[in-house]
């Protein structure tokens, strides 16, 4: 008997499921319902049309219903919304949004890929101003139209997640004054507080006005009013307050939901109804590292779940090995990537996992090559096993590669030993002989085995304020250009002549530019009998990045005489 498969949602998950089903079954009748105007558009590229990087909105649309019919015999119906599921009769009720006609369509199997909605906070005056989300091609077209029709100058972006950041970046690139407002103490919660400081500074350096720990309380003609009372000039508002599973249809049909109101699925992406699958942003996934179930609103997982569900429908079973969560983004001239657990995730979910982390700052390619850039790599590992839990990498160069290498290992339970031994491709234009991931392995093992002791950049302010003893291992010239207040300058090349100046009766914290020279100084001192020497992980670069933004935001006294970012 012919199988009839209906699919709700015609973009990432939905269209991928349709295409996979066609490859598995030439005879099946496949109908895709999409309430929007387009199927299969590039959601992830939407923000790049705001700046013109993607020149026309037509380019965002990857295929058409006509092409889907002719190439794949898939019946894709745009502006058709599924408004109900009659599970007893295995039928859906569909509304043609062009004509208003409502009709029913029977199914053998149903796939739900309705995506996510932007949770809109209750802001006074929201309905009286021009406010947009960035979810589909129609949204970005409307934004463009509104910007040019109103001759807008000021844009307020509410929400500092990756869509808010990308919208802010692209609107700034297009020449608008952009005000980015985030309720939390940092943007991009996918990154840890220490790491995200680099991206926050980049936003500010590029002219985005960043407001943290602030909510937009009210929208008035020409203004957004913050919780502090401050008024920001605002011609249009972009609402980028996150992604919440769109489970309304599933809920109405009586399908089980999770606590967070996502569509509940089993390991095969089957809902509580054995004829209905659900995938993508509308479901939660099992995280292999935290052993918890949570949303993962990203394109890659949605596409893979589509294949997984289609295969399962046809008896081709695959292991659900869980998800680790890997993502990346560009923020003007910087790139950031993250995989696996972060400190934010560990703390937010109260995971009972003892951990420490390494923070290394090698060059991304051989430093004498044109275009070489610092790379900031943080690798979190479990104590006492040395098992790697996650990594974050930020820099101007190819940081995604470093995170991808670690992401590739993460499902196989790698340890710092594995990281150290990774044999990666090397030539000067691409990387360094021992890549940053190798370095993270070396340093991590030193920490794990107690070869050296370290403090993190987040601890330095407290130490400075309590009068701790710091030694700066850089040259006098570097020291004069900026150092930790009160630090003693003993360059590495003078250390062996000046060791007697280093006290033995109190902790001594050593730093340099990126911790290479200070690590060598720590080794020299330890090998000469000092047991009280501690490396400042991240050193002057790490401290500068960590301190700068909060110094500017709060006006507090800096702990360095000058910052050093290069
Ligand atoms: C601006 C933006 C940038 C992004 N950037 C990235 C990125 O860089 N990397 C990354 O990994 N992910 C990114 N994402 C996330 C990624 O696009 C989503 O995770 C992915 O599209 C989810 O696929 P999905 O099929 O679940 O939902 P979607 O692709 O959103 O598709 C759901 C579709 O279902 C339709 N629908 C809902 N209900 C009904 C109904 N009842 N009847 C008919 N149709 C219905 C909706 O109109 C929608 O078009 C981005 C998302 C956005 C919005």
List the helices and strands and how they pair.
Blueprint: E1 4-8, H1 12-24, E2 29-34, H2 46-51, H3 65-72, E3 75-78, E4 80-86, E5 91-96, E6 102-106, E7 109-112, E8 116-117, E9 131-132, H4 137-149, E10 154-158, H5 162-173, E11 177-181, H6 193-205, E12 209-211, E13 216-220, E14 223-226, E15 231-233, E16 236-239, E17 244-245, H7 248-252, E18 276-278, E19 284-287, E20 292-295, H8 299-313, E21 326-331, E22 334-340, H9 343-348, E23 355-360, E24 375-382, E25 388-395, H10 399-410, H11 416-421, H12 436-448, E26 453-455, H13 457-465, E27 469-472, H14 476-480, E28 488-489, H15 492-498, E29 508-511, H16 516-527, E30 533-536, H17 539-554
Parallel strand pairs: 1-2, 1-7, 2-3, 7-18, 9-16, 10-11, 10-16, 11-12, 26-30, 27-28, 27-29, 29-30
Antiparallel strand pairs: 4-5, 5-6, 8-17, 13-14, 14-15, 19-20, 21-22, 22-25, 23-24, 24-25
Helix pairs in contact: 1-8, 6-17, 13-17
